[in-house]
Amino acid sequence: MQFDQILQYTLSGLSTGAIYALIGIGFSIIYNATGIINFAQGEFVMLGGLFTLSCLEFLKLPLWAAIPCAITASTVVGILFERLAIRPLRQPTPINLVIITIGGSILIRGLAMLVWGKDTHSVTPFSGDTPIAIGGATILPQHLWILAITLIIIIINKLYFYHTISGKAMRACSYNRRAAGLVGIDVRRMVLFSFIISSAMGAVAGIIIAPLTMTAYDVGVMLGLKGFCAAIIGGMSSGLSTVIGGLILGVLESLGAGLISSGYKDAIAFIILLLILFIRPQGLFGKSDSERV
Amino acid sequence: MKKMSLLFSSICLSLVCATVSFASGTIRIGALFSVTGPASFLGEPEKKTLELLVKELNEKGGINGQKLEAVIYDTGGDATKAVQLATKLIKDDKVSVIIGPSTTGESMAVIPVVEKWKIPMISCAAGIKITDPVKHWVFKTPANDHIAAEKILNYMASKKQKSIALLTVTDGFGASGREQIKTLAKQKGFTIVADEVYGPKDTDMTAQLTKIRGIKPDAIICWGTNPGPAVITRNVKQLGLKTPLYMSHGVASKKYIELAGADSAEGVMLPAGKLAVYDALPKGDSQYKLLKGYDQSYKKAYGTEASTFGGYAYDAFLLTANAIKKVGSTPEQIRTGIEQASKLVSVSGIFTMSPKDHNGLDLSAFEMVKVVKGDWALLK
Hints:
The structure holds two protein chains of two kinds.
Chain A: H1 3-34, H2 41-57, H3 63-86, H4 94-116, E1 132-134, E2 137-139, H5 141-163, H6 165-175, H7 177-182, H8 187-213, H9 220-233, H10 240-260, H11 265-279
Chain B: H1 2-23, E1 27-33, H2 40-59, E2 68-74, H3 79-91, E3 97-99, H4 104-117, E4 121-123, E5 138-140, H5 145-158, E6 163-169, H6 172-188, E7 191-198, H7 206-215, E8 219-223, H8 228-239, E9 245-247, H9 254-260, H10 262-265, E10 269-273, H11 288-302, H12 308-326, H13 331-339, E11 344-345, E12 350-351, E13 366-372, E14 375-378
Parallel strand pairs in B: 1-2, 1-3, 3-4, 4-5, 6-7, 6-8, 8-9
Antiparallel strand pairs in B: 10-13, 11-12, 13-14
């Protein structure tokens, strides 16, 4: 096996993995604040891409303005989702909430299909599509954007959760909701915040990958599942371990497709998911009593 | 009470009207399309096309003074529902012919029903098993996948390309194409050096292509429908692969070039139904006028380009209308009329049916085209 082939597999895997990581972090932020797995997370990825498309094509905004608009619009959908579907629930048991998020994802996908149609759409890359050669392998400028933006978001995340009052309050909720409530933290508000942050992050993921992978009303399903895998590998932490989980997943998929067989590419991801759930349910890096934010 | 009586009388009135129109000789055409659901990209243009054609024909005075009426049901891509609706069309709506269903699975499920009730059916699905072996009452309009595959291999043979890397999607379309190419390649003396697959929703195929790059085949054949092939086209450009890339007829629309980007798609070759490339055809082509007319009236009525899929319904309608005109309007007469169709110029090709061939298309249904500067150019 040649070196440049391995290099290409790894680079392709890292860039796909970065996307999984971003989506995975969205999963774990909501999980930590509310204890539920938000299966509508993938739909925010889809919304991010499609709102950008609308801003570019119908409102004729330049790219730098379209991106914040799309993030805002997706976040508004996230807020509405929390307000209308999650908060009014009388008996918020985790299983009810999980089912609601699945229902919500179907609804959002259906509405998106009505608004944007069933076609796949392409979005122009941020800075051209001339491949960049690294050793014998090549990547696109968009891949660099993805890696850079993922990095920035992780840093902002870290700063928010450890150096701001509301970030600390959210961590408090994740340790013990009742105790957090007793010391005066508005737990419901924190839940809303968690939806805002994760829908915005999902949208960012959707926006930066749209030029590369194209976007359609149904892209959220598979990306959501892969993001979920990444979060599980990372032990549902909203920090570095989910990112590493995403990167591992991406690289393994790519190496698996290249070295073993492309027919088993998705199977590899899900076998890893099952193995982690069987052997290390606390995640690859977690201690059994792990810190979860 | 007053409302009720009004309702009742209006029902009576409409019944009378229905009988009147029936008595004056309306021919009913049944149609089963998957207008919603996963195969809606097939069913929607098919339904629109049929409605458009029936309207146009009736405005011109119908066939031999008889008007046509289309009864269209949505199957949602569900075979069970298709069977129920087929029975309904035959028993309640008393149709003389059924156009559709849109998918191979539904068509296979409906075949026993139409065979039992002796109603001709013209499927709009591409699966080869619908008309192979030939069933007395069953026809289909899309060309078989192996015709498209053969077109590619013939072209490759003329360019002396011998080794093929396959990259197919893991759904029905890709699996069928993969089988057909493998069988044909064996017959024609090609070697398959790589046999890679990808999922319909995959977003990055550089791993498969990197592997193929290492093997150095003479050509890559990719078999899938959008968006996969567009992603692959971009990945090929990213990796700087210079190997000739062939696509299937599944992406023969401008949408593919738009998604892949004119720059990346440059030089990609594929077999296309003539509708997709009609403006590149020589003016003398026998299908040119019909294709142009279809595309323009479809655009006028619905504001979007006519698609190959809608074309399948066009063919089915034309075969039916032709049969009614030449033979007669009972189910048996329509069946005979369709089977006797000879050199009938339509959208998917020129149909020549026979008791042994209920598809009626040959290699001339496709043209090999190449993407040049964001548009199709015919290959000779």
